[in-house]
Here is the input.
Amino acid sequence: MTRRSSTQGYSLRNLQSLLGVSRRVLASLIDAGFVRPTRGRRNEMRFNFRDVVLLRTAFQLQSAKIPSRRIVQALARLKDDLPDELPLSGIRITAVGDAVAVKTGLDQWDANSGQFLLDFEVAELKGDVTFLDSSPSSKISLNKQADDWYALAEKLQGTDPVGAEQAYRKALKVSPEAHYHAYNNLGALLSRDETRCADALAVFEEALTHFEEADLLHYNRAVLLEQMERLDDAAASYLRCVELNPHNDDAVFSRGVILEQLGQLDDAAQVYARCLELNPKHEDALRHLTRLNELKGDGQAVIRHLSAWRRSNA
Here is the structure.
């Protein structure tokens, strides 16, 4: 995971994107003295991680109608203790009553604020700072938090697989109910790396303890088992997928391929024939079935299936 250096910092445009507020709002917070940005080479304003957290806090407190004087007082202690860069363990700020607790890793301290409610989590993924709700006060908020982590993971999949994995696992951890899509996407993400097939398989198998009748999970599990050359297990998993979704011709065909590899040629031929019943245009199934029929010397079956395939593609 890369980290944004404190010398580079964040531009005003970066802050707009990170905090989701307008340039005007940011300018008013800066003018109010909540932060004192440095200047870059072109005299542009640059902000460090501490500035990001303070501005986010100030904006939330302003939105809660807290007077600016009280906000400045609340942030004074926080400003002294916040690091310039986000620690790898992340940072959490939670206010209860008249105390603001700031926690990084195992360390926690009191930022000494007035009475207000504030609770968010900051995560750094691929050099960016992301704010996510971290107050599990109800099932609704937990679901929202899990959905936020899931949405973040989806955004990171293409550019930061390590960050995406962390975010998917966070979604699974905080969700009050088993999160089907987080399981499936995490397993698919891990399976892209040939060295992590076992990790991906563990994800799908855990998911199946919650969603035993999800045919896609059985299919994805079977693909991994096939890659790991656990052919008997893969055939069984494809079969379970087909039992749950009899119209999945890809699962039917894949099971036929494994049966053929296992030397169960008659069974494989029956499976390929079934695949062609489901999808008469399935060229791979036709090719495999034709070869098996030729091996058996069944010329009539070859002609019959070829004719059916031609009719379906006419």
Remarks:
- Residues 1-131 form a domain with the Multidrug-efflux Transporter Regulator; Chain: A; Domain 2 fold (CATH 1.10.1660.10).
- Residues 139-156 form the longest helix (18 residues).
- The beta strands are 38-39, 45-46, 91-96, 99-104, 107-110, 118-125, 128-133.
- The mean pLDDT is 75.
